[in-house]
Design brief:
Helix Hairpins, 2 domains, 0% strand
């Protein structure tokens, strides 16, 4: 109870202080002859209450009985006590406000530093994202002449039939296959996103943090690069190509099935391309709001 009284807001002390003035005025007015020696009006009692609680003590009106002196004595004591509590509360509130403002300034500086780090890291990540998207476009598109494969989110399992065909890109090793290009572009992207999680406080940007974590975790937990690249240089490559060409509908996992790794790759691509779009959109939103 004492703790509640001591830690009240300044306005409550001020209100109670003002409230005492008419209360004591009414007490004095109720029996002014016994307390103050003669009959006084309500306005005069109100005046005496103000003079008493503010400790001015002009002396025009004075108590004449022991009871009158006791009642009069309590008013300035309560008034001084309330003023002391008011000033203490005011100081405490000011101190808390100053501390909160300092903490907010510190948090703002920290947030700005993290946004700057995020921007710097993403400048490194963005080219890797573009390369990854380019590799996905190639691995999910049947072979065609030219250099304009684009990713389509509704690509089919059978569209991956040419994943062992060389890309022919003039700006890369033209002898590498679409599968090799894909895994070579995925690895550095995962690494940079992992560094982003470690070096930038992404707790400030929870949606971005979740997307980056999902991308890295999914790529690590469903790594089928060894199986797929191992099959590329064997007779299995032709079998895989034929199975992909002949497949219809959505792929499913089957026990001890050769194509399970390719089903994993198919699902991984769909999931990670969605995450890439979320990551890009979140970074763009964060930078625009910053």
């Amino acid at each position: 109870m004492l703790n509640i009284i001591y830690n009240a807001k300044p306005k409550y002390y001020a209100c109670f202080y003002v409230f005492l003035i008419p209360v004591y005025a009414c007490v004095f007015y109720s029996d002014s002859e016994a307390l103050l020696g003669e009959k006084y009006s309500l306005l005069e009692c109100l005046y005496f209450s103000v003079v008493t609680i503010t400790t001015l003590g002009y002396g025009e009106i004075t108590p004449v009985s022991d009871l009158g002196m006791i009642v009069t004595l309590t008013e300035p004591l309560l008034g001084v006590l309330l003023i002391g509590l008011f000033l203490n509360s005011l100081s405490r509130v000011r101190s808390e406000t100053t501390r909160e403002e300092d903490e907010q300034k510190e948090q703002d500086r920290y947030d700005a530093a993290q946004m700057a780090k995020l921007n710097g890291h993403f400048n490194l990540i963005n080219p890797l994202i573009k390369t990854y998207q380019r590799s996905v476009g190639r691995i999910t598109s049947p072979f065609m002449s030219g250099d304009s494969w684009e990713y389509k989110s509704d690509f089919k399992f059978s569209d991956m039939k040419d994943l062992f065909v060389i890309t022919g890109y003039v700006d890369r090793n033209h002898t590498e296959s679409a599968a090799q290009f894909y895994f070579k572009s995925l690895s550095p992207l995962q690494s940079e996103l992992s560094d982003l999680i470690k070096l930038v406080d992404l707790r400030l940007f929870p949606k971005l943090e979740r997307s980056c974590l999902f991308f890295v975790e999914e790529g690590s937990s469903s790594d089928v690069s060894e199986v797929i690249l191992g099959a590329e240089k064997t007779d299995l490559a032709a079998i895989v190509k034929k199975s992909l060409e002949e497949h219809e509908g959505e792929p499913i996992y089957l026990d001890s099935n050769l194509m399970n790794s390719y089903v994993t790759l198919y699902r991984q691509i769909k999931s990670q391309m969605e995450l890439i779009e979320i990551i890009k959109a979140e970074v763009e939103l964060i930078m625009s709001e910053g």
